[in-house]
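Title: Comparing notes on inverse folding

I've been comparing how different people in this forum approach sequence design from structure. To keep things fair, I'm posting one structure and asking everyone to reply with a full sequence. Here's the target:
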């Protein structure tokens, strides 16, 4: 009878143990999502308890703790926890006392079953998709016009929309297509030759996708609702102001510069440093202009290119140095916009006009480093502290700005377009940064890097190609069941 009792009661305990482990796993994952959303430990405990109850246990049987990683023997050296969250770890223990049946004859009236699960917010270096960060806005990702937006390379998820609105994606007019069929990590060259597809994730519950979306074959999904992805560049420090002494002199319209930089006509060379928007400014550039490497710090009137303008990176060794901002870069720039307060919504923006990128006679002047012609920019090195950023809007800009980049004469942007007011600031004052990216007739728009903005509008009449980076350089917060 003892052997029979052991077999029957042991089976009961085994089943209960498995149910307890399932409940603990679900409770830990529910709790860590509240930690991820920075709702605090009280909310995480409530969510963990609720999921324990959903899985058949009572609230007193579900216990949540928030230990320090250093107190757990398995933790140190095995996971990289987020240092931006406190707490960043939840451990859920599900305990049940099970009354025995047959073993009572042996004096064993009950046994305790216990299951433990631990979930954490971890940090992993990853490539990131196009990120649209506004947490609530309808139409935070919008598309209009008749063009095709093609995305090559990058991570398994190509586009991430963080808005919880049920109309976070807005499609209007003859909107054309978003083509992810050649995106994803298999396209290692980022040229749309080997990619087999990637995901489009939308936090808002909006099904089906309201436009034309080509997802490819592997993996290729439209995910809605999805979990949010935080700004992976939030820890990147903004450039410190570069005050006078004056900038290095502008070298304008010289035959020497023309010969050194292969300018098809006379050209102007400009230097990094502080632009006050009055005596020196970056909204009045004209003609063929060469940018020396370094950090361009703008106080007012933004960075604006109008018609009859072509801008390229310095290619002559004599100008591939940065004595002003001390970056040691040779072919890279960060253009940082920190407008005076309050910002002028029509002036303090990044703007590249549809008629920019060509000189009189409609010449776009393709070259080896700019094969599509027009305007060509190289952002900061991905190995630098600026993680590949090209256009950097101050996060403290408490004004909604509409930045407009158009490629009528050809536009190639190599680097990250980073225009955000941060989710916390948006929630506080309702202001945000909007990027309108357009491809216009007769030109090409090509982005080689990342787009991280509060709101994104894609449109125009000509195609836009985005080659996402496959380099794992961005520290991404994510949740994981770690034990």
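Reply #1:
Here's my take.
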């Amino acid at each position: 009878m003892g052997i029979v009792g052991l077999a029957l009661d042991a089976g009961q305990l085994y089943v209960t143990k498995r149910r307890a482990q399932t409940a603990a796993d679900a409770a830990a994952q529910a709790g860590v999502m509240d930690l991820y959303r920075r709702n605090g430990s009280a909310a995480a405990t409530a969510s963990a308890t609720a999921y324990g109850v959903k899985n058949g246990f009572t609230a007193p049987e579900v216990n949540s703790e928030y230990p320090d990683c250093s107190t757990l023997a398995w933790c140190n050296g095995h996971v990289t926890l987020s240092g931006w969250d406190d707490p960043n770890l939840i451990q859920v223990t599900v305990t049940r006392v099970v009354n025995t049946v047959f073993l009572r004859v042996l004096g064993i009236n009950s046994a305790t079953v216990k299951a433990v699960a631990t979930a954490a917010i971890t940090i992993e270096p990853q490539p990131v998709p196009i990120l649209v960060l506004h947490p609530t806005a309808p139409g935070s990702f919008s598309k209009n016009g008749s063009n095709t937006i093609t995305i090559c390379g990058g991570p398994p998820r190509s586009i991430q929309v963080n808005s919880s609105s049920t109309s976070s994606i807005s499609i209007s007019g003859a909107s054309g297509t978003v083509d992810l069929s050649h995106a994803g990590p298999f396209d290692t060259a980022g040229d749309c030759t080997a990619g087999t597809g990637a995901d489009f994730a939308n936090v808002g519950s909006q099904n089906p996708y309201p436009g034309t979306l080509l997802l490819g074959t592997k993996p290729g999904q439209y995910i809605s609702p999805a979990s949010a992805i935080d700004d992976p560049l939030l820890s990147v420090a903004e450039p410190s102001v570069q005050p006078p002494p004056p900038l290095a002199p502008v070298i304008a319209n010289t035959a020497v510069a023309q010969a050194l930089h292969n300018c098809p006509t006379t050209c102007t060379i400009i230097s990094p440093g502080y632009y006050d928007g009055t005596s020196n400014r970056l909204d009045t550039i004209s003609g063929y202009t060469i940018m020396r490497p370094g950090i361009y710090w703008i106080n007012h009137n933004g960075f604006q290119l109008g018609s009859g303008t072509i801008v390229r990176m310095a290619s002559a060794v004599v100008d591939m140095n940065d004595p002003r901002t001390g970056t040691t870069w040779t072919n890279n720039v960060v253009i940082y916009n920190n407008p005076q307060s309050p910002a002028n919504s029509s002036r303090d923006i990044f703007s590249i006009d549809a008629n920019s990128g060509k000189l009189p006679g409609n010449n776009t002047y393709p070259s080896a480093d700019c094969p599509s012609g027009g305007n060509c920019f190289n952002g900061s090195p991905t190995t630098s502290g600026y993680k590949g950023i090209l256009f950097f809007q101050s996060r403290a800009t408490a004004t909604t700005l509409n930045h407009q980049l158009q490629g009528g004469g050809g536009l190639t942007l190599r680097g990250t377009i980073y225009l955000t007011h941060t989710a916390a600031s948006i929630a506080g004052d309702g202001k945000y940064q909007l990027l309108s990216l357009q491809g216009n007739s007769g030109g090409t728009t090509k982005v080689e890097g990342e787009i991280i903005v509060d709101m994104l509008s894609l449109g125009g009449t000509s195609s836009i190609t985005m080659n996402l980076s496959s380099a794992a350089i961005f520290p991404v917060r994510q949740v994981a069941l770690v034990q």
